[in-house]
Amino acid sequence: MKAVFAQVMPYIDYIQKALVNYNGRITNLGTQIMWGAVLFSALLLAVLHLVKRKKPSVSGTNTFSLTKKADRLSKIGDYLNAGKLYERSGNLQPAADAYYKAGTVYYAAQLYKRLGMKDKQASALEQTGFHKEAGELYRELSMYKQAGENLLQTGELLKAANMLETTGEIGKAADTYMAAGFNLRAGELYTKLDDKAKIASAYEASIIIPKGDTIPRAITNYAMRAIPAYIAIGNMQKAAETAEKAGLGKYAAELYSKLENWAKASDLYLSINDKKSAADVMEKAGWNDRASIMRASYYEDSGMKREAIQAYEKMGRLDDAARLYSSIGEKMKAAELYAKAGKHVISASLFKEIGYIDKALSILESAGEADKQSGEAQVLKLDLLMEKGMYKDAGLLVEQILSGKALSESNLQLYYKLANIYEEEGRAKDAVGIYNKIIRIDPAYSDVNERMDRLKRISQTPSPSPSVIDQYAQTVLLSDTGGGILSKRYKLVQELGRGGMGIVIKAQDIVLGRVVAIKIMSTGGASDPKRIDAFIREARTSASLNHPNIVTVYDVGEDKGAFFIVMEFVEGMVLKKFLEDYPAGMPVQLSIFVVVQMLKGLAYAHEKGIIHRDIKPSNIMWTPKRVAKLMDFGLAKALEEIKHGETIVGGTPLYMSPEQILGEKTDARTDIYSFGCTLYELLTGKPPFTQGDIGYHHVHTTPEPMNKINKEIPQWLSDIGIKCLEKLPENRYQSVEQLFNGIQKGYKGMK
User: Fold this and answer.
1) CATH entry 1.10.510.10 includes domain 573-750
2) What are phi and psi of 234, to 5 degrees?
3) Distances in Å between the alpha carbon of 441 and those of 341, 399, 412, 413, 479?
4) Which residues contact 157 (CB under 8 A, 6 or more apart)?
5) Please, what CATH class does the domain formed by 471-568 belong to?
6) Cα–Cα distance, 327 to 329 (Å, whole number)
């Protein structure tokens, strides 16, 4: 009866649950009908089960008999039949055990299940190959080791690994995690076991690089666990490969360097732009040329341009060295190296930029025929000839370049230059003709309209009368009967200016086809040949100077009571005139820009042993291209000797040094004093002393600091000015180089 009750109980439970759900809460008619059907079905199933299970009862005597018979069969090893008899007699556990021993394990498992003996059921299922069911039963029984081993058999690796880890089977669990693809967890377990080889493998397997440029930080962490493990087991190759895979370029390069895989190491260093380390590796590999190039490139990228220049020069890469010299402002050195490197056009362009026109022309002439005939070279040569005032040659060249082509948009610039040349040669009509054609194509081209207006005004202005040009200038330049020396070679264009020393005239050199400036100075009636020779010697000494910041002297001489100096014609104005726009002083930056150029010219002259003795704003030309040019070197002294017949050191009182005023010996420091006066005027709008006895003040009075007059002047620059104006030469800067370095240092600090 007990057994029957056990069979019917599930149906009773089902009915009970149905009743509980009903609980008087169902009001919908359809739902009530449905639940009625459910209750009826449950009762019917219970009855049918009782009928099905009802068998002829086995009497107690038969049960005992069957059991005894089963016992005997079990003793003789007939476990299968014993099991059947045990089952018929209702002795399910002995029946299950007998079936188990007979090898019919599956039947045993079913009986163990009916008996609720899960451990024996799991064991039986395991033996029959039902590992999944066995594993789940073992897990319910907290028999995790057996559960893990059975789940492992079914391929449920993650569950198996969890079971094995729970039982402390760390090694086996880690292997299973690896097999399941859970490499990170495997790596953590291998770390507990300190199994370096497997640690390395697990963490390396965890490195999966996603698409995109950024590598997640986690990937780096995995790599940093795998790499030391590989190193620990001596597998440096795998360590390097793992670092490379994880994007650890520098670390990978270092490891490949240890493996002496120089190619890989240098490539990796370059991939992270570590040119210095790449160069080191290349040197170790014996690739000296590549190493030198790389090191030079590193210096350049790091802003160490001097070191880069030395490296490039050492390996013969002169064009790279020249490029860097140019970038740091050393255009002269750059131009020289470009010439050596065969880059003649670039070299000539730089020489032109720094004012070395003759050198630029010489470089162009030394170029190969192909370079010389290139359009770029020809236009450059044209500009150089125009800079030198050699308009005749420039005109021939531009006509050659144009080759008779009509004026068009493609050659506007060349025709514009040709018109400029005609204008300089006094061929105003020809110039106007070209300018008119240019305006038809481009009405706003360059300064054509301004030039046209100027030429129109000049054409309407009457020629200068003899009263405008001094008698001595007329004698020299215009006298046909007098046989003037200059009149045989130069054609008067116009007067440029006049002053206490004479008159300056713009003229055309008929022989060389260039425009020049001629300064004509009265001798004051002096006729002593010795004095005249002394003047010419002094002037010719100045003519030896060839520097972009010095006006070049072409010729000197004396004729009919007047001295003349033929010099480079410089477009622009004297600095004194330019200063009129700045009555309170020029801006500091602009002043520094001007005086640095002055110092470059002075330094060059002093190296040649030539002292100017009359540095002042009116002896400095300022060009439209913002170039400062010193002029009249030594002329003050020479003219005073001519006029007075004695050696007195000339100069202009506002800018004269104490030793000049006292008639003492002068040297380079004299120019430094006059430079100080000029610097003072540039920054404040006036020289240091302008009232009272100027000479006395220069010898005895300390000038007011410049930064007290103009608050914009930095202290360091004011101090430099005061040091230049020291009364005793030994207290001033002792050379232009010292002075230049002081300004350079202060300016760098100001940036």
Assistant:
1) yes
2) 85, 10
3) 41, 20, 9, 12, 45
4) 151, 176, 177, 179, 180
5) alpha beta
6) 5
pLDDT cut 70: percent of the chain above it: 81
Q: Residues of the chain with pLDDT > 90: what percent?
A: 33
Q: Amino acid letter at 581?
A: D
pTM: 0.50
pLDDT over 80 (residue 215): no
Q: How many residues does the chain have?
A: 751
Q: Is 78 helix (H, G, I), strand (E, B) or coil?
A: coil
Alpha helices (runs of H) in 608-667, residue ranges in sequence order: 635-644, 658-661
For residue 480, pLDDT over 70 is answered with no
pLDDT of 39 above 90: no
Confidence class of residue 2 from pLDDT cuts 50, 70 and 90? very low
| Annotated domain spans of the chain | 2-53, 471-568, 573-750
Distance CA 239, CA 507 (A): 82
Which tens digits make up the pLDDT trace of 21-34? 444 444 455 555 65
In DSSP terms, 568 is beta-bridged to 516
Within 10 Å of residue 276's Cβ, how many Cβ atoms?
16
For residues 400 and 303, what is the distance between their CA atoms, to the nearest angstrom? 45
pLDDT for residue 199 is more than 80: yes
How far apart are alpha carbons 682 and 684 in whole angstroms? 6
**What tokens does 468 get?**
């405008």
Type of residue at 54: K
Give the residue carrying structure tokens 């506002």: 654
Neighbours of 408 (CB within 10 A): 10
User: What does the DSSP assignment read for 239-263?
Assistant: HHHHHHHTT-HHHHHHHHHHTT-HH
Structure tokens at 361: 């022309």
